[in-house]
Amino acid sequence: MSFSDVLNSRDKYMLNPLWDIHENLILRKDGSVSAVYRIPPKVINSPDFKGKEQFKESVYATLSSLRDYHDFEIAMIPMDQDIFPRFEKIALDIDWEDGAAPLAEYLLNGMVEKLYESLGTIYEYVYYLVVPLKSIHVSIDLKSVVGQGYRSLRNSTLSLLGFREQVPSNWYEKYQHQERLLKSTLDMLDAKRVSTGENIFIQRLQFLRGMVVDKETEMTFVGNNMENVDEVNIEFEHVNIMKFSNMDEVSYVAALPIDTLPENVSYLHLQEEIEKLSFPVESRFKVQFSTPNGIFSLPNKAKRSRRRLKNTMDEADEADDTQNVSVVRSRFLLEDLKEKVDEDVPLVSYLNTLFVTGSTIDVLKSRIDILFSVFSQLGISLVRANADQLYLFYKNRFTEVLTKSDRNFIQPMSLEGFCENLFFMTKKVGTDVGFPIGRIDYQSDSWQGDYKAAIAASSTPVYVNLLQANKQGIEGKVTNNPHVGVTGETGSGKSYLIKLLFLYHSLLKMQCLYVDPKREVRAQYQKILYELERKQEFPELQEYIKSIHYVTLDAKNPDNYGVLDPIVFLDGQEAIDLADSMIDSVLKENTDEIEDAYLTSIDRVLARKKQGEKVGMLHVFEDMQQSSSETVVNAGRNLWRKSQKSILSLCFSDGRNSAINLTNKTTILEISGLDLPKSESQMDLTKSQKKSLVVLYGLGYFCKRFGERDRTVETMSVFDECWMFNSTPAGREVIMEMKRIGRSYNNFMILGTQSVHDLETEEDSTGFGTVFAFLEETEIDDILAYLKLPVNEETKRWIGNMTMGQCIMYDTFGRRERITVDGMFPEVTVLFDTVESQLKATA
Predict the structure, then answer these.
(1) Rg, the chain, Cα only
(2) For 276-296, what is each residue's pLDDT tens digit?
(3) Of 397, 512, 520, 538, which cross-links 834 as Cys (Cβ 3.0–4.6 Å)?
(4) Cα gap 601→9, rounded to integer Å
(5) pTM surpassing 0.90?
C-alpha cells in the first residue's frame, strides 16, 4: 500500500475541502481562497429580444474581465420560497373588523395550502458567482505553490494521526484588497457579497438537495463546526440513483452533464429554458479560461484536431471519395476557433451539470424524462452518466475547479458563445406581496382553450396588490400611476379578472365601489347567498355577501328619488356646476335668460339648505316658476314635469331622500334604465338618451366625490363596461376626473374595455400604471404598440396564441409577461358566473 493510499489522496475529492468561511470568502484546506457573490437576476420579459442581447453583452464584458483569475463558477440554484411572510404582510392590511374578515381568513389560509398542494416546492432561482482569489493552479508565486501543496499534505497527515491544524487567525485580512478589486470588476452585474450565514447555508445546501430544510438550523449546525457541512448519508438505489438521507428527510438526486451542444449556440438561452420547466433544476458551471500555451491548452488541442481532420480529408481526396459532411463542418469550426485564438478572443472550457431531485424514484425518473425531451428539442445531448454520479456530485461543490484530469463532458467554446446560455436573468411580473391571481405562462404556443393545463405547466405564481402602485420606497417601480386597464374581447376572461381583483381588494382596509351597468353582479351574489343559506354552507362567504352595500339607480323605486340630486349630495360651486350641466342637457332650447334664472334659483335653494331645510332640484324649478318672465316660468314648469316619474327623478327631487352613502366600505352600484348612445358619432339624441346623460353626470360626480372624500383612505372604483362612458363627452369626463384624482387622493380605478384604444385618448396621455391585455384578435398590433413591445412575428404569435383566461400583464415596474388567470377557489368564484342559460347539454 503506497503512502498516497494511506493518505486517501485518490479519494480526496470526496472529503470536505473547506477550512473556514468569513463573510463571502472561503478558505480551503489547501490554502486557496475563493470569493462568493450573489448576482441579482435581471428581469427580462419573454419577448424582449433586444434586452436579452444587450444583457448578454454586459455579462460577456464582466466575465471576460475574469480572465486573469483563470477559473470561475456559476450556480443557478432553486431556493425554497418561504411564502408565509408574504401572506403575513398582506394580512396586516386586511380589515379584520369588517364582515368580510372570515372570508379573508378562509382565502389566505387556502392560498398557502393550495399553492403548496399544486406546486409542491415553491422556489425561485438564485444565481451565485464564485471566483478563486488564489489557487494552486494559477499562482505565479512558486513559494506560495509549494506552501499550499505542503499544507495540503500536512493536513492530510495530521488528520490521519488524529490532529487538526487550527485555522489561521484573521486569515481573510490579507485577501480583502484582492476581494475589493474583484468586487469592482463585478459591479456591472450589481454583484452582492454574501454574508457568512448565506455562504455557510449554500455550502450545506449542496448536500440537502430536494429536502425540506430549516435554514437557521443548518446554518447553526455548520457554523458550529465546518466539518458538519457534508454530514449526510449518501447511498445508491437501483445501482445508479443517488439517495440522500438527513434525519427524516430523503431525496433522490441525479447529476446530468451536458455532453454535446448544437454547432451554432446563438440564442441558445439554456438558462431561460430551464426556468420554464415546472420543477426545479439546479444548473452548475465549472469554467476555466484557456491558456495560450501548454500541451493541454485549448489552442494546442485545436491544432492537433485540425491536423487529424486534414489528414482525414486528404485521404478522402486521394481515394477520390466524397468528404463526410461532419468532417467538413468540424474543419470549418476548428478554423473559426483558430481565428479566435489569433485575435486573442477569450476561450473557455466548461463543465455544465444539471441536478434534478425527486421525493421518490418515480418522481425523479419522470422529471429526467421531461428534461431529456426538452433538451432533445433544443439539439442538446444530455447524458445519464451512471458511472460518474459521485464524481459529478463532488466535482460540482463550490470552490472546486477543473483540472487536467477532468476530460469528460467538457465543452470548449469562446466566451461569447458561452454567454449565449443567458445567465443571471429571470422572468417576473406583479408585486412581491399580494394576492396570487395566476401563473406566468412561458410558452408562445396555444393551449387550445385548456387554461388549466397552462396553470399546471407553470411553477411561477403571479402576486398582485394594486395598492402598492401608489406607495413610495418600492425599488424598481417606473411609475406611481395607480390605475388599472383591463382590455379584451367578450368571453376572454376580462370580467372574471376584474371581479377577482375587486373581491380580493375589498378585503383590505379600503373602500371599494363597483359600478355595474349590466345589473348582473348583485343578482348573482344574492343567488349564491340564497343557495348557501338554504344548504347552511360556507358561512364565511355568506357573511361577505351580506357585508356589501347594494344600490340600484332605478327610478321605478321612489326610495331612489334624489340619490344623485346635486343639491342633496353636493355643496357650493360643485352643486351649481353639476346642476347647470344637468339642466342644460334637459332643456330643448336654453337661453341666457333661462340660464341666469336657474342659476339664481340654485343660489336661493342652496341658501335654504344652509338654514337646515331639506331641499332639492325640484325646489329650483318651483322657484323658477315664481319669475316675472313667462319664458323662465315655462322652462321651470317644463323641467318640473319632466322630472316626475322618469329617470330624471334620480337627480331631480324634493330632497326628502338621502343621497348615495359615500362611507360604506364596499358598494355595488347598479344602473337601471339608462339609454346611452352607442357611439359619440350619434348626432341626434333621443329624449330618453338626453335624460340618461343627466344621470350619467350625477353618477360621475358621485364617483369623483367617492374617490376624493378622504385622502387618508384608499379607494377603488371599478368600471367594467367602459363603452358606457366613452360613448359620450359626459362619460369621458367621468373617466378623466377619476384619473386626475387617482394618485393624490389614493384612488385606484379599474377600467374594463374591449378595445385598447379606450385606455389612452387624445385628450389624456396619463395612461394606466397596470394593464391586463386579453386577446382582441383585430387589435394585436395595437396591443403590442400600447405595451411598448416590438411588432414582429414572434410577439404577434405570443399574443395571438393566448387562450381564454390568458392575458399580457404590464406592471408598474415596466415588466410584461403572459399570464394565466387562476381564481383558485371555485367555491368563491361562482360569484363571477353571470352567464345564465336554460340549456342543459353544455358539455
Answers:
(1) 35
(2) 999 999 999 999 998 766 544
(3) 520
(4) 104
(5) no
